[in-house]
Amino acid sequence: MEIEPFPITGEQKSRNKSRIIQKQKHNNMEYTKLLIEKQDNICIVKINNPAALNALNTTVLNELDSAFTEIAADESILAVILTGEGKAFVAGADISQMSTMNAAEGKAFGEKGAAVFRKIELMEKPVIAAINGFALGGGCELSMCCDIRIASNKAKLGQPEVGLGITPGFSGTQRLPRIVGMGIAKELIYTADVINAEEAYRIGLVNKVVEPEALMDAAMAMAKKIAKKAPIAVKYSKEAINRGMQTDIDSAIAIEANLFGLCFSTEDQKEGMGAFLEKREAVYKNR
Ligand code: CO8
């Protein structure tokens, strides 16, 4: 039986496998800036405030926080795609909201965004950023807390914050050097240069560049490919990489060994290896 992750209206029930969830109350949370759609076991979260180029204000951050909490708890979702409506993925944190902040408010806003992004990064499901356009400042930082980034060839990425008198404050000073290396990260952050998708691919900031009209298909194809694999093995792989990359190599190898061992207590390990030996396709149960 298919699980309904969020309340669905009658009109949406008439749609078969693809359902859009919008402006609905769930856990007292109403989504006004997100479109959330589920296609089989893939969830697509689209930031939907194109008039402001999907800039991250408190409302958008709260809705992302709530949406990812719900998605994390939904066992029927095996992979997530995060994208933006219109010509931006996200053109940064909301400059008009930040413009009047004092130091304490700025710190609190930075911590709020960082906490939401960390939740996405730590979620036990793979998240693919489908970067449809501008991914600047907080938008580039949001894409970097995702596991994988696929960009439209129209996308522009960068950390323009020093041009506004601030540092990257949603963990960009930390994730960008971890992804592209310290030298390139420092160049991008100090110069505030905005780069195109090809350059982002060259420096390893995005995994793949595709035509704009092929973006969602490419993200969906990758999400589906992942969703066909053993979910617990994918989850443990994510945990091993995330935790292992933040510690010394010996501790990292111990983390990996522990998670590798845990795989052998799953039904899916028996199924995966059994299917190989029986020369058939494995059917995983996320158990
Ligand atoms: N914040 C608020 N509004 C924005 C933002 C933003 N980041 N980006 C665009 N908008 C608004 C514009 O003000 C405009 O609104 P309006 O129509 O009411 O004038 C609307 O979106 C459309 O934008 P443009 O007319 O500028 O569209 P263009 O196609 O001409 O330009 C650009 C597109 C180049 C992307 C341009 O909008 C731009 O430069 N935007 C700002 C990009 C930027 O500097 N982003 C980084 C912001 S700082 C940040 O993200 C810090 C993150 C860490 C925060 C830590 C907290 C302490």
Computed Rg: 19 Å
- Please report the total strand number as a whole number: 13
Give the distinct bound molecules. octanoyl-coenzyme A
What name does CATH use for the topology of the largest domain? Answer: 2-enoyl-CoA Hydratase, Chain A, domain 1
Overall number of domains: 2
Question: Count of DSSP helices?
Answer: 12
Dominant shape:
globular
Order of helices and strands: HEEEEEHEEHHEEHEEHHEHEHHHH
- Give the neighbour order of strands across the main sheet: 1-4-5-6-8-10-13
Task: Describe this structure as you would to a colleague.
The protein has 287 residues and is of the alpha/beta class. The model is unreliable at 1-19 (pLDDT under 50). The protein is built from 12 helices and 13 strands. Helix 2 packs parallel to helix 4 (103-122). The strands form 3 sheets. The protein has a 7-stranded mixed sheet with strand order 1-4-5-6-8-10-13, with helices on both faces. A 4-stranded mixed sheet has the order 7-9-11-12. The longest helix is centred in the middle third of the chain and has 20 residues, at 103-122. It folds into 2 domains: 18-227, 2-enoyl-CoA Hydratase, Chain A, domain 1 (Alpha-Beta Complex), CATH 3.90.226.10; 231-277, Orthogonal Bundle (Lyase 2-enoyl-coa Hydratase, Chain  A, domain 2). It binds octanoyl-coenzyme A. The site of octanoyl-coenzyme A has 24 residues, from helix 3, helix 4 and strand 9.
